[in-house]
Design goal:
mainly beta, Immunoglobulin-like, five-stranded mixed sheet, 7% helix
Length: 738
């Protein structure tokens, strides 16, 4: 290597050694700069170094206060753990790392707060319309309370707001409260009292610095003005039905108790509903019925007198006064007469709408079949039985619903960690839609719910869905998504009124951290073997595809195994090999270059015009070999006293005016990093007086003379032919055959 280049490389090495030394020892702390911790939680500070195998660490506070934590050193890391966090941890902490004679220091500020609970709403007494009451909103264990703001609302109306800006005398957690006195009105029914607390501390999430509690207003008023409604009337015939409804001006709605006076003076409780329906009345059902409205503040009662007259025959309708029928099913209503030998039957709807059903009467029974049940069948049906001059009528209410299948859970894309995905909870063919509630849960936690109350007047089968987006994480794998559909129709008897579907989450992780291992090396000798091994992290485990990059940039697939083995490699095996790892979450790629080195071969050493020349001639000695990169060609002349290296150009050496001393053995050496190959020839230089020498000039003259005579004959032939035609063309002339 020239002395100048050696100087440059030496200076460069010194520069990099100085640079590496200046960059070697570093210190980092995590989290960076500042951390805000809640009192009672556990917090860890991690101090780490690079560029030193065995550093030593020490921790201290800026004010040299006690650490109030435990220190654990692990190699190039030191961890300070404060568990639980208390007021004694609100400091600026310093981590000092020492490596031999070098010392580095890093600082982090620890601030604390306390805001562990939701606010609490309490009332000074029960909520009675027109009576003042004091509501108190309190939040416990707050620090620092001079950052606290509290707001009390009734519905959307602001009742009071306060910021606790008074100066803190000591570091303690305190309970702060907000009080408002107001007089409830009827308009307040259903409104919420809202207590909102906010701790104005930057650096913590909204869900940690804002808390809210709601309390629904439950108002009451003393019971009064109890009235009763009797339909059709208090005078009935045996087998008739009657509905008695009791209404009382109570707030909240009182408990309604229906009972009947017995002959012995006792009372028989019949129902705890506002309406009491008695069907197939008998004579002994006559009597006094009592409606009583009761709550914790009082009660009020009214009486109804029912008279049931005997009837010569009776009628029963089944399955009962009302039936819940699913749309699409088949329903049969049966009307049966007792006490009449040859009754006649007729069916109609309460509103005289078309019957739209199949009627079949036989002896004392008549059936009305609705198949399939549709919206036109949602009526109150009346069966009229005539026996001679007497007539009796029974009714049955057909209520419709549709809830035929479990909801479906759909994801718009595969679950990939960190990528937003939309989940849809869909339920099909529902009616009535205004009673539907959909919930989406992840595990036991409700993510979203929806009631479709706005669709109250829709009379059609509806398919509705509840959609929401979330960002899955790897911790979600194994959790379940639950799509829960509820049809809130308590007054109908059918099952199920609740359906659900479950989907277990499997979160995909795209391929990452791909590595390629080449054994033994990416630079090989021709004929040797090599293993290319590719690995990648991801979930599910990525599949591997090995390919070779062609000259046009396209990829030629090789194998789907993680390891590709090339045996007896050739020069053509050199090139770029690409490993692709892929799974449903994505694809990752890495490549490696393979170089197959080939030793020199097919070397050719020639002398032009010949290996035997005459003194004074020019001769070119040329050495060539197969076009292999990085091949060196050296021409030498062998001699007993030592070899002479010839100055050749592209493997060619020219001897001008050859002398007798130029005769001898010439050798060509072709070599590269893999091997070498030798070829030699002997150059014979003849003196000018040597008769045995057959010069090339004589050979040329001899060959030329052997061709002259035939050529002259051909020229004469073509000349004569041209004279006969009047012209001559070498192009049109017939080629001679030799």
């Amino acid at each position: 290597m020239p002395r100048k280049m050696a100087g440059i490389f030496g200076a460069s090495n010194i520069f990099w050694m100085v640079f590496a030394a200046s960059q070697a020892f570093k210190i980092e702390i995590f989290p960076e700069d500042k951390i805000i911790a809640q009192i009672g939680d556990s917090v860890s500070l991690t101090c780490s170094t690079t560029g030193c195998e065995s550093p030593s660490f020490s921790w201290r506070t800026q004010m040299d206060s006690p650490l109030n934590g435990k220190v654990k050193n692990e190699g190039t890391k030191s961890i300070l753990t404060m568990d639980p966090v208390s007021f004694g941890n609100e400091h600026s902490y310093l981590c000092t790392a020492t490596c031999e004679s070098r010392k580095l220091e890093k600082e982090i500020q620890v601030e604390i707060y306390s805001f562990p609970k939701e606010p609490e709403i309490s009332l000074s007494g029960p909520l009675e319309v027109g009576q003042p009451v004091t509501v108190t909103c309190s939040v416990a264990d707050v620090y620092p309370f001079d950052r606290l703001e509290m707001t009390l609302l009734k519905g959307n109306q602001l009742m009071k707001n306060r910021e606790f800006l008074e100066e803190m005398e000591s570091k303690i957690v305190e309970t702060k409260s907000l009080e408002v006195t107001f007089t409830p009105r009827k308009e307040d029914i259903g409104k919420n009292l809202v207590c909102h607390a906010k701790l104005h501390i930057d650096g913590i999430g909204t869900e940690l610095r804002e808390r809210e509690t709601r309390k629904k207003l439950q108002l009451y008023a003393s019971p009064k003005n109890t009235i009763r409604i009797v339909k059709p009337s208090g005078k009935l015939q045996e087998g008739d039905s009657v509905t008695m409804t009791c209404v009382s001006e109570h707030l909240p709605a009182p408990q309604i108790i229906w009972s009947k006076k017995l002959d012995n003076g006792d009372v028989q409780v019949l129902s705890a509903n506002a309406s009491l329906t008695l069907i197939a009345m008998r004579v002994e059902d006559s009597g006094t019925y009592i409606c009583e409205g009761i709550d914790s503040h009082g009660k009020h009662r009214e009486e109804v007198e029912l008279i049931v007259q005997e009837k010569p025959f009776s009628v029963e309708i089944s399955p009962g006064p009302q039936i819940a029928a699913q749309i699409g099913d088949s329903v049969t209503l049966t009307c049966e007469s007792m006490g009449c030998v040859s009754p006649s039957f007729s069916w109609r709807t309460q509103m005289d709408s078309p019957l739209v059903g199949s009627v079949k009467s036989e002896k004392t029974k008549s059936t009305l079949t609705l198949n399939p049940v549709s919206f036109e069948h949602e009526h109150s049906y009346l069966c009229t039985v005539t026996c001679g001059r007497k007539k009796m009528e029974k009714g049955i209410q057909v209520n419709l619903y549709s809830f035929p299948r479990d909801p479906e859970i759909e994801l718009n894309d595969p679950l990939v960690t960190g990528h937003p995905v939309t989940v849809s909870c869909k339920v099909q063919n529902v009616y009535p839609l205004d009673r539907l509630e959909l919930q989406l849960l992840k595990g036991q936690r409700i993510m979203k719910n929806k009631n479709f109350l706005e669709d109250e007047d829709k009379k059609s089968l509806e398919t509705q869905s509840l959609d929401m987006s979330f960002i899955p994480s790897i911790e979600d794998t194994g959790k379940i998504l639950v799509c829960l559909a509820k049809l809130h129709i308590d007054e109908m008897e059918f099952e199920p009124k609740q359906r659900q579907s479950i989907k277990t989450l499997s979160v995909n992780v795209p391929p990452k951290e791909m590595t390629i291992l080449v054994s033994p090396s990416s630079i090989l000798e021709e004929g040797s073997s090599v293993n290319l091994t590719c690995s990648s992290d991801g979930f599910p485990a990525p599949k591997v595809l090995w390919s070779k990059q062609l000259n046009n940039g396209n990829l030629q697939p090789l194998s789907e195994n993680t390891t590709v083995t090339l045996t007896s490699t050739r020069k053509e095996d050199s090139g770029i090999y690409v490993c692709e790892g892929f799974n449903p979450a994505g694809i990752s790629r890495k490549e490696v270059e393979l170089v197959v080195q080939v030793p020199p071969k097919d070397i050719q050493l020639t002398a032009f015009p010949s290996e035997t020349v005459k003194e004074g001639d020019t001769v070119i000695i040329s050495c060539t070999c197969e076009n292999i990169p990085k091949t060196w060609i050296i021409l030498k002349k062998k001699a007993d006293t030592g070899d002479t290296v010839l100055k050749s150009t592209d493997g060619a050496y020219t001897i001008h005016k050859a002398q007798l001393r130029d005769a001898g053995v010439y050798e060509c050496e072709s070599k590269n990093e893999v091997g070498l190959q030798l070829r030699s020839l002997t150059l014979d230089v003849k003196g000018k007086g040597n008769k045995d020498y057959f010069s090339p000039e004589l050979l040329v003259l001899y060959c030329a003379s052997s061709l002259i005579i035939p050529a002259i004959g051909m020229i004469i032939y073509f000349a004569r032919k041209a004279n006969m035609k009047g012209s001559y063309s070498l192009v049109e002339a017939q080629k001679s055959k030799v």
